[in-house]
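Q: What residues go here?
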């Protein structure tokens, strides 16, 4: 699940609604292993709401920094594209939607950060010892991906449809 509403509580996106296997870390991903050990994150554990928030924030910052997806607190889209192609084994359906999602969120990232800095309920994001940029962009991109999930990967349950409806209604207002 993805927690994407920093102001009003969690907006949950259920990964079972859309095939999001591309977000799973591979067993041979040395950077993910090193970052998980450094911040005490179990790569097999999927329920992020039970994780220490600051550790998870730093873990995501570590992943993005070590993979050179985040350079000087800016998303490097060329490196993101290469990384996504490697993660998805060239599944162009998923890659194209995820690249588009990352591009949208990368363009919005500085505005999102500025909005969150002004929000007293989101100040905790900036009190962590690591930058929240990677987590913010990841949450934003996951939400965009969820909204634009290809039909062949979508699970049309009432719960999924309700989440998608809510996500569309609150697309950029959650930040």
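A:
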């Amino acid at each position: 699940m993805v927690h994407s509403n920093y102001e009003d509580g969690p907006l949950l996106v259920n990964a079972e609604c859309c095939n999001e296997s591309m977000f799973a870390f591979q067993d041979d991903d040395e950077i993910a292993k090193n970052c998980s050990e450094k911040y005490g994150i179990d790569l097999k554990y999927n329920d992020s709401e039970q994780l220490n928030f600051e550790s998870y924030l730093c873990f995501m910052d570590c992943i993005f920094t070590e993979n050179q997806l985040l350079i000087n607190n800016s998303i490097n889209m060329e490196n993101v594209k290469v990384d996504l192609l490697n993660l998805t084994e060239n599944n162009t359906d998923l890659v194209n939607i995820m690249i588009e999602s990352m591009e949208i969120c990368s363009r919005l990232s500085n505005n999102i950060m500025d909005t969150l800095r002004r929000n007293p309920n989101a100040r905790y994001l900036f009190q962590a010892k690591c930058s929240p940029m990677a987590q913010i962009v990841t949450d934003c991109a996951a939400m965009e991906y969820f909204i634009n999930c290809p039909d062949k990967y979508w699970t049309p349950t009432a719960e999924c449809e309700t989440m998608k409806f809510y996500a569309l209604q609150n697309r950029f207002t959650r930040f």
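A: Context that may help when evaluating the design: The CA atoms of residues 29 and 87 lie 10 Å apart. Strands lie at 2-3, 12-13, 70-71, 74-75.
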